[in-house]
Structures are given as structure tokens and as C-alpha cells.
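[Q] Does anyone have a clean C-alpha cell version of this?
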Amino acid sequence: MASGDNPVTAQAVHAAHELANISDKGPLAGFKQFISRGSMVDMAVGVVMGSAVTAVVNSIVKNLLSPLIAMIFGKPDLSGLLTISNGKATISFGAILGDLLNFLLVAAAIYFCIILPMNKLRNLAHAASSAKDDKPATPSADEQTVQLLQSILNQMKADQWQGRPGQAGPQA
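[A] Here you go.
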């Protein structure tokens, strides 16, 4: 009986194979696969870029827009504008407007500084890729020679079996 026919040996080989591959099946392997996906990396880059853009926009609001608002309305920011208070609770529409303005500025900055250029680059890469794929591949000189010789050989075989005059016919 060969060693491959022995069920105990087959089980031992299977168990050894499973132990060798255990690092590929553990919880860390799934985490590694999750992290290494392109979308996860894109998301991480987006978070970092978003926080950087937010810092720039907050600086613009603090150092440019807030002083303009102070000059126009006589208050340092929008939070003091359009407030309703009854002593126990205060509703501040100005604060909501300020946060909405901040959000719109961040969204516009992210769109025009990150999303729009990335889409343009992606479209250029796709156009270059599709132009490259549309171009028919011409066979090399060696491939053309092989194709020509194959065609000649096929024609010679066809002539031989058809018994054309001046050609050797099939061997009987």
C-alpha cells in the first residue's frame, strides 16, 4: 500500500497543510484584506485631506469672514445675530447660519481642490487607457513568419490530400 493510500497519512498531510495556512485564515488576515482594499486607502486619504481643508477654511472664516461680519453687523460673528431667548433657552439662528456657511465653504473647497482635479485625472487616465486598448496589436516579425509558414504548410497538406497534378498524392 502506497503512503498516499493510507488514510492516517492523508489526514496528517491535510492537518499539516491546514497548520501551514493558518496565518491566511486568522482574524488578522481578514483585517489585512479589509485594510488593503483600495477604498479603505481612499477613505483614509479623504479624511486626512478633509481635515487639512477644514483647517484652511476655518482660518478663512476666522480671519476674513468674521471681521467682515463684525464690520457689517457690529458683532464678532454670526452667533449673536437672530437669537430668540426666553431666559431658560436660547435659539440662535445666527450660529446655525455661521455653521452652514462654514460647511458650504469646506464642501466647496474639497470639491474644487480635491474632487474635481481627481475626476479630471481619472478621466484622462481612462481615455489614455481606452486609446491604448483600441489600437490593434500587430504581430511581431517572428509571429508573422510563423503564421506565414503555418499557412504554407496547411496549403501543402491540402494539396497533397487533393491529389493535384504534379503533387504527390496520399500514401496508400
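[Q] Thanks! Anything notable?
[A] The chain has a mean pLDDT of 77.
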